[in-house]
Structures are given as C-alpha cells and as structure tokens.
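testing teh design pipeline on a random one, pls ignore if ur not involved
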C-alpha cells in the first residue's frame, strides 16, 4: 500500500476550534491516517480561542514572517507548530492576527453574519498553506481540503502554481461537508482572490450567478471530490434544492465525486470511557445508562421520569428541521415524551425553542449554548435522539447515539438514510426510526412508533443492542478514502 504525504486543510479541528461536525472529522481522520503511516499534517488558522500555552504551540524560526502574495497585496504571516492532542499528527497554525485573532471563527457578533472580509481571510488561508509547504521543503502528494474555506488551494494549484516544479506531483482532493455553504461573495473580490484572472465571467471556475464562489472554484479545480455520505453524493447531483445551485456543476464531475461516510472518534464518543457522563456503561453492562438518564433528568429539571426522554443537540439552523419540531410540538407532547434540546445559532430558532420550554416546564428543557460536556450527557442520558433534518450530508450525532444505546429517530435523508435502518419488533432488525417527508405528521408518527417500542423493554433492549454493536469508527471509511487518494495519484500519472 502506498504511503502518502498529505496536507489537510481545515477551518475547524476538535479540540482546537469547533463549530460543527467538520471539527470532529478533522480531529479524527488525520489521526487514523497517521496510524496507518501516512504522513498527514493539518493546517488551520490560529484563531483567538487557540491558546499557545494550552496546546503547547511553538514558534518555528523558519516559519516566521512568511511573505504570501495575494493579488496586489503581500501578507506577512507566521506559522506555529504543535500536535493534535493524543496523536503524532503535526499541526500547523496560520497566525495572522488581523484576520484570525477575532471573537468568533465565522460570525461577526456585531452583525450575526459572516465577517465582511471572509473572502480575503480564507483566500489567504489557502495561499499561505501552499507557501508554507515551500518554506518547509515538504512536498505533499496530496493537498486535501475541506469545504469552501480551503477550496481555493486546489484552484491556486491549477493557476498560480501551475508551472511551479515544487507542486509538479501534488494532487488535490476536496471534501464537501455541506454544499449549502459555498463562500459566495460579491464579484468585486475577484481581483483579490483570483488575481490571475483577466476577465471574471461565466467561464471562470469560481464564477456563479455573477458572484465569486469559492466552493465552485474548488469543485472545478480539485482532481477528485468526496462528500460525506453515499446518499448525499447522489442528492447533491440529482436535486437542485440539495445541490444548492451547484448540482449541474457537480453532475459534470460525477465520475470524480465519491461518497465516503464519516466515521466517529471512539476515543471521544464512547460510553465505556466517556469522562463527562455520570457512569460508564457498555453493551454488555447497561446499568450505567440508567444512572446517566437519572442525572440528565435531574440536571434539566424534567418531570414525569417515565416518559421517553428525547435528546437533540445541534447548530440551530434551518437545515436541522427545528421548525418541524416547533410546529409538531403540541401533538408530540400528547405522547409520553420529554424533550431535551441543546443548541446554538439562529436567533429566531433560539426564541422558538425558549418559548417551547417556557410553555412546557418539566416536559421540554432547552439550553441555548455550545456545551460539549452536556452534549455527552445528553447522548448518554436520553432514551432516544431526534434529528428531523431537512437535509443532512452525513450527521455525526445519530452515530454517537447508536454508540450510546440511544436509538435515533431521523428523517430519511443523506447520511441519516445511510446509517439508520428502521427497527421492526417482529424481526428484531434495524437500529432506529425513520420518516420520509419533512411533515409534522410524519415526525409525530415516527416518535409515536418509538414510544410504543420503548414500552416494550425487551424489544427496546434489542434495538439498543443493534445500534451499539456496529463499528462506526473510521476503519472502513478510511480505506475508501485511501482508494480515492490512490485514484487521484493514478490519474495524475495517466
Ligand atoms: P453539523 O456538522 O451539521 O453541525 P453533525 O451532526 O455532523 O452536524 O456534527 C455536529 C457536531 O457538533 C456534533 O459533535 C455535536 O455534538 C456538536 N454540536 C452541535 N451543536 C452543539 C452544541 N450546541 N453544544 C455542543 N455540541 C454541539
């Protein structure tokens, strides 16, 4: 098997900086590939939250004051070095304080929207990553980028560095974690981020509907593309809505797009070793789960402890289907269920949820926050886990739930459809409950079915067991990804 040198570009990486699932994936996959003896190194911005002392980051003299040309400007950046905790994965942190030493990674707290200069921030991120490689004299076989923040690296490899002998044998792979986030900016920024461009028009790879589109530039430029589940790979090609305006572009790349399901980090999400939860447990010894349940009920102030406790943990954005929960709440709460919701994000969804909790004390508990420890407690303490997503590229929480014996109730879309199979009491097969349409009555029907099975202790035990015994780690997906890398390298030779 080939061993590759891979530079992995990511705008999030757990535990340094996390907003959503990308951080979990970036915190795990490189570790797995490193264990398989690939020389994979990660590159991310040094945000304000990433403290040198906490993570033992070091200055590297060679990586100080690197000049990065971008359009008419030259940025002087530094790169610090460290390791992904509990691993030998080398991590490089792009330090450019005017861009990254800010209160939040993506969102300007003053406006509640993306930072105004995001195009330049993340164009610099990609360009600086490639310049750093040259300073290091480290030639990667592959530059593996994630989502729009890293999407210009494949583009620069095909433009600014096209004839650079240093990158002669370097190929690029881009993973799309969510096609709806594209890095779309007014055409005026084209001169800064696409400096080689003579004319910015529909023939330019980064042009979409008159705007600069980072993700499209990446799709058009990367040698191969992956996305995070097989079903989502099909959905973004076949559906205008789910392809978010890029379905035709993706369709052209169909032969180069692979759906590789994300895995989970078993060292972080494992009820046998989880340090955040009241008591550890395993598929063979489930008593600890009851203690976790009791602790959650107590902490969240829930009444009627016999009710099925349904957990939700999520970014509060439209994608996640909270409007369905809000609209179905009256019917849902006629069932013997309690809801525990942890989330942060859009203010309107936040307000809806807070109102729901206010109107239903003891039945609905809502915490508006980003709270990693509570997320673990919910996975362990809830009876079931709800994900009514309108779309879901992969979703990690349903896999965590399966691992924690907390059967998921999900809408059948994207990675949810790939990982959750309908449970039937008769056959004792399946690991959760699915509903097809994003409609209140379908959601309620699925929850209702879950409550019926929940009353049948034997059947529920079997359901939990089915979920807990499956391996959701990266082991098989990492193999698939390596075969994508193989193909990228082979195509390069051809
Ligand atoms: P997405 O990437 O769309 O946000 P995923 O299901 O792939 O969705 O991953 C979400 C990750 O973020 C999970 O690890 C989940 O536990 C975590 N998460 C989301 N919201 C919160 C929150 N408010 N507090 C703690 N963890 C959260």
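output:
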């Amino acid at each position: 098997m080939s061993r590759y040198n891979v530079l992995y570009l990511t705008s999030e990486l757990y535990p340094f900086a996390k907003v959503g699932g990308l951080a979990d994936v970036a915190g795990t996959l490189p570790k797995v590939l490193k264990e398989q003896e690939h020389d994979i190194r990660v590159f991310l911005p040094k945000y304000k939250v990433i403290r040198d002392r906490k993570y033992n980051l070091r200055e590297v003299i060679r990586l100080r004051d690197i000049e990065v040309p971008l359009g008419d400007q030259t940025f002087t950046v530094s790169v610090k070095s460290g390791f992904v905790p509990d691993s030998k994965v080398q991590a490089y942190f792009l330090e450019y304080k005017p861009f990254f030493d800010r209160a939040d990674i993506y969102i300007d707290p003053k406006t509640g929207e993306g930072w105004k200069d995001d195009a330049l921030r993340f164009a610099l991120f990609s360009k600086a990553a490639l310049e750093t490689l040259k300073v290091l004299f480290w030639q990667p076989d592959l530059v593996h980028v994630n989502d729009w923040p890293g999407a210009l690296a494949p583009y620069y490899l095909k433009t600014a560095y096209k004839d650079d002998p240093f990158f002669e044998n370097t190929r690029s792979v881009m993973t799309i974690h969510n096609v709806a986030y594209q890095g779309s900016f007014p055409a005026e920024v084209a001169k800064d981020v696409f400096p080689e461009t003579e004319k910015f028009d529909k023939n330019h790879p980064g042009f979409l509907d008159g705007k600069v589109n980072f993700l499209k530039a990446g799709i058009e430029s990367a040698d191969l593309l992956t996305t995070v589940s097989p079903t989502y790979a099909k959905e973004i090609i076949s559906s205008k809505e789910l392809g978010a305006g890029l379905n035709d572009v993706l369709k052209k790349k169909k032969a180069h797009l692979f759906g590789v399901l994300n895995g989970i980090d078993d060292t972080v999400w494992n009820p046998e070793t989880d340090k955040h939860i009241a008591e550890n447990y395993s598929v063979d010894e489930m008593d600890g789960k009851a203690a976790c349940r009791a602790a959650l009920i107590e902490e969240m102030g829930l009444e009627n402890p016999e009710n099925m406790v349904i957990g939700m943990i999520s970014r509060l954005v439209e994608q996640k289907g909270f409007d369905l929960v809000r609209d179905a709440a009256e019917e849902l709460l006629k069932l013997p269920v309690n809801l525990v919701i942890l989330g942060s994000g859009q203010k309107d969804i936040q307000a809806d949820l807070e109102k729901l909790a206010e109107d239903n004390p003891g039945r609905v508990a809502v915490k508006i926050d980003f709270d990693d420890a509570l997320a673990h407690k919910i996975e362990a303490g809830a009876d079931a886990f709800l994900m009514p997503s309108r779309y879901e590229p992969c979703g990690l929480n349903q896999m965590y739930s399966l691992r924690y014996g907390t059967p998921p109730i999900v809408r059948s879309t994207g990675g949810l459809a790939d990982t959750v199979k309908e449970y039937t009491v008769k056959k004792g097969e399946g690991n959760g409950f699915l509903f097809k349409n994003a409609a209140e009555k379908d959601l309620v029907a699925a929850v209702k079915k879950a409550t019926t099975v929940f009353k049948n202790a034997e059947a529920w035990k079997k359901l939990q067991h089915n979920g807990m015994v499956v391996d959701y780690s990266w082991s098989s997906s990492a193999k698939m990804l390596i075969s994508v890398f193989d193909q990228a390298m082979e195509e390069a030779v051809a």
